[in-house]
Amino acid sequence: MKEGNISIMMTRDQYIESLKKLNLSVYLLGEKVDVPTEHPIIRPSLNSVAMTYELAQQAEYEDLMTATSSLTGKKINRFTHIHQSTDDLIKKVKMQRLLGQKTAACFQRCVGMDAANAIYSATFECDAKHGTGYHDNFKKYWAMIQDKDYTVDGAMTDPKGDRGLSPSNQADPDRYLHVVERRPDGIVVRGSKAHQTGIINSHEVVVMPTVAMKPEDKDYAVAFALPSDAPGIFMIYGRQSCDTRKLEPDAGLDLGNKNFGGHEALMVFDNVFVPNDRIFLDGETDFAGMIVERFASYHRQSYGGCKVGVGDVLIGAAALAAEYNGAAKASHVKDKIIEMTHLNETLYSCGISCSCEGCKTASGNYYVDGLLANVCKQNVTRFPYEITRLAEDIAGGLMVTMPAQQDFENEELRPYLDKYLRGVDCVSTMDRMRVLRLVENLTLGTAAVGYRTESMHGAGSPQAQRIMISRQSNLEHKKALAKNIAGIKD
Amino acid sequence: MLLYVKFCGGCNPTFDRGTLVKHIASLLDAQIVNSYPEQADFGLLVSGCSRHCAKILGDVPHILIDHKVDAEKIVEEISQFLSASGPDC
Questions:
Q1: Fewer CB within 10 A of the terminal residue: chain A, N end or C end?
Q2: How distant is the Cα of A1 from the closest Cα of chain B, in angstroms?
Q3: Does the beta carbon of B4 lie under 8 angstroms from any beta carbon of chain A?
Q4: How many Cβ atoms from other residues are within 10 Å of residue A21's Cβ?
Q5: CATH: 3.90.950.10, 1.20.140.10, 3.30.160.100, 3.40.50.720. Which one for A290-474?
Q6: CA–CA separation, A363 and A58 (whole Å)
Q7: Cα–Cα distance between A166 and A211 in angstroms, integer?
Q8: Which ipTM was obtained for this model?
Q9: Which residues of A are catalytic?
Q10: Which helix (H) or strand (E) segment is A23 a member of?
Q11: What gap in Å lies between CA A47 and CA A109, rounded to an integer?
């Protein structure tokens, strides 16, 4: 058997069991959570990550879900892959669309993959310039991640305090995560990372700086990895719209998507020790910006896959709602479905194009086209909002005024609800309610965190992409073209 | 018979690839395998759309299957191929 055929991937159940062995410190609704994997608010998000393990075991999806490791030659989950070609970049986007379709939620595992690919190339170039040994550190660390098939959180976003001040000029020095002590065997860090997608479902966390830095910010230019249950780390779970519906017994209908979800949390590093072999940047401020830019570009590419997959589900839900309402043949409804599809496929086109136009870095891995990746994400800050608007238009007001599941279970009320809330007669009232709740979930319920606001701010807010687009627009070339056509001679 | 099946990744299939393959395998009374294509009698390269992303890995006679496929016709083609090849000895 070729080594490339050796599977080292975890099954869905093995993944969940491995998470149970972690000693995570998680707070939710003001209380410490004893068993995060079993908590009803957290569990759907765990199921989404588990799907990345489940699909990798299935022949129907292995072409997208698996790859051959460039570090070990073994067959690995693509979420731990270091991209070796533009084909790898394309498959990444397709894999993300697939996962979005299967979960209709954020499946959380992309951020670690994007962090790994950014750090892989940046550490190589940092070593070449400064004589550091970060690239070897990272390769050994990431080979371990691939071998164990771990889920890794990529932690970039500091709270940032006063946005007008640099990290080292903040009133509270902990507003950005930083090194507070350097020891012979490692460093001690303090600070926090906000909006940490999937951290409670992750075995490890890779921490990166959040902005480009100047020499005076040396203690803030730090990248490293830790187990997510390392001493001194704790998480405070982020609330989502309608989240406590998950605490209601048998609330399947009202959840819209009872099996899957996503999560974010504030992650606190309270004087946490990082051993030397897990450090990937420490004080080389000139490489903080490179890590930020590369991670951001990879992650902006990601949104051209994951949001498209969720969009596929929302378009399907809107089409079903129209059918169940008896309005599917109305020309304006058909046109709205077409528009939703057009917007969704435009996002996909952006994700694919920035992958096709990717290039090889000095380290050997492949990097997306930065301009096209930023155009992709800029569109993602807009199109899902229009897609949700059209979905709400087609669904009708009942998606936010319909009674609760308990009302449908009340024997006195049920005949009335069935009578008055039915659409076309061949579809049950409950099925009509189910699809409307799914539209609600995606457009303004728990999943809207991922599909709407995360589309706006995740991987950087809109202005961050516009700055990158401006930098890479090659405007002088365009002006020269115009001069040539217009006959203007300098 | 052993029927080697290699799927595309399934990012946006226009039909249910798994159900179709099971249907073809049942018509052929074949056992589906997803590895060691060289040990199979025949192979199916199953792509969910016209992009044909499924690629064969190994040396095995095979047919491409996409959204335009007719299962019965595929079964007929495979049966004809196998009978022309003669029985395994």
A1: C
A2: 10
A3: no
A4: 8
A5: 1.20.140.10
A6: 32
A7: 9
A8: 0.76
A9: 106, 110, 197, 264, 299, 303, 306, 454
A10: none
A11: 12
Chain B residue numbers touching A97 (CB-CB < 8 A): 11-12
Give, in order, the Cα–Cα distances in Å from A275 to each of A264, A279, B17: 27, 7, 48
Residue A470 burial (CB count, 10 A):
10
Assessment of whether the complete model's pTM goes beyond 0.80: yes
d(CA A206, CA A367): 19
Q: Where are the domains of chain A?
A: 290-474
Provide the residue ranges of all domains of chain B, joining segments of one domain with +: 2-85
The rounded distance, in Å, linking the Cα atoms of B56 and A323 is 40
For residue A60, the chain B residue with the least C-alpha distance is: B7
- Amino acid symbol at A326: G
Reported as a single tens digit per residue, the pLDDT across A383-425 is 999 999 999 999 999 999 999 999 999 999 999 999 999 999 9
Rounded to a whole number of angstroms, the CA Rg of chain B reads: 12
* Residues of B whose CB is below 8 A from A352: none
Q: Give dist(CA A200, CA A420) in Å, integer.
A: 43
- Of 3.40.50, 3.90.550, 3.40.30, 1.10.1040, the CATH number of B2-85 is 3.40.50
